[in-house]
Amino acid sequence: MMGPLSYYQLYELNHAAMSPMRAAADMFGLLLKNPLNPMSQTPLGRNWQAGLELFERTTRRYAKPSFDLPTTLVGGMRVPVTEHVVWHKPFCDLIHFERQLERPRRDPKLLIVAPMSGHYATLLRGTVEAMMPRHDVYITDWIDARMVPLADGSFDLDDYIDYLVEMLHFLGDDVHVVAVCQPAVPVLAAVALMEAAGDRFAPRSMTLMGGPIDTRINPTAVNEMAQGKSLDWFAENVVMKVPFPHAGCMRDVYPGFLQLSGFMSMNLDRHVTAHQDLFKHLVAGDGDSATKHRDFYDEYLAVMDLTAEFYLQTVETVFITHALPKGTMTHRGVPVDLTAVRNVALLTVEGENDDISGVGQTEAAQHLCINIPDNMRAHYMQPKVGHYGVFNGSRFRAEIAPRISDFVLTHDRDRAANGASAKAPAAKAPAAKAAAAKAEPEAKSAVTPAARKSAAAKPAVARPAKAKPAAPAKATSAKPAEPADDLKRIAGIGAKLEASLNAAGFTRFAQIARLTVKQQTALDARLGLRGRVAREKWIEQAKALMQEASAQASATPEPAPASAD
User: Fold this and answer.
1) What gap in Å lies between CA 85 and CA 104, rounded to an integer?
2) Rounded CA gap, 440 and 31, in Å?
3) Which of 53, 79, 425, 500 is 20 to 30 Å apart from 443, CA to CA?
4) Rounded CA gap, 340 and 67, in Å?
5) Is the distance from CB of 510 to CB of 516 less than 8 angstroms?
């Protein structure tokens, strides 16, 4: 805070006060660029043009950029791409980059989880572009917290993990996940929770890129700053309320402009030099260099606000207590056990010069997930790149993207092969038939002529696969199904939720009463309960209702046997 106004309110007032001057600079800049203006090609005119554009760019608020990926190259053919929002929540959209292919391809589905750390998902435009030729790409498009009304509720790290689990359920059981920077922690936690619950929708592989899995290793300036402050300091100094007239007015947030200020201050000399170079390029008429500068900073300076609860929980969990590598992280009271990860392949990627997530912080996931087989894990460190070079730029396209793609395709085939062999009932008959055919010559040679003659005289034995005489008898002898309990008697379960529970196979109080922690996590992820089982004490209520029903049954006299009539 600063006097009666917060920094956020001062920022908004300053932006509003500068609007007339910014509009005037834009107008005079256009006037000077007009080819009919005799000053447009003079040294003085070009200097004025450059100065006015620089003023306008350094005082504007940058809007969310577009992905602008209209086409991609698939199999040597240029095909159109359309963006579709296929899943929506108040704080996130899931975008599908649908390739308009003449012939459908069975490319693996790739969920790219963009960082929710101040920048928009469009920062990963290069990542999406590099993956589209060989993969069916989806990306999380996080929504600016200042644009989400208070009525839509809160959003914290637990909600983030819930969103990821719901997305994986929505996409199906053949998905590969790529987490860039900040989401490495929630993605790894979500996968561990799904594996512990035996969730079949757990991804086939996860790629963690430049993520802060264990920030105690080679701490950077960002890590040391977070470690050196208490959580109360962050709550008092960087959390502010969204001012009017934004849709999220009065929501507590960590403003994007504060995060951007922190990032820019780490390399302030480089940013100042870049803007000086822009002025020189504009004066010299170097349009290509000026365009590259505009493209980069239009993306880099576009920022979004984060909800205060998500920011503070992330700071505490990742940077202060180091809960994930220490094994103390929980999700809605359920421990996050990284040793449960056994079936999801793991690729970690780091940059040699990363000044946000130090070398070794992401690789730590390899040492924490001890039960992943060696043939399902890999680590790669890209020389001579910083944090942004891990997921964008020429070295990413040439060195990192092909490795990610090959890793995904390799483990997509491996899981497909294992899945085919695991379908024993479907494969049993053909396998048995093939085995019988192979063994038939040996069996014939082992049978004596007399036995062969005797066998030929006997009728063939009926085959169980074709004749099923036991089926009718089994059907008639089966006990009638017990009527379902009224689950709505449990406080917190309404008619709609009861229908969802019934569809998931839960129809009796006894099933609710016997829920284990793993089953609670699985049910929580499947129905999006957000910890309601434990919070509303469903298990205790179900046990009490069972005791009540038992007491009523013992107090009611048994009816006379049917034979007495």
Assistant:
1) 21
2) 92
3) 425
4) 37
5) no
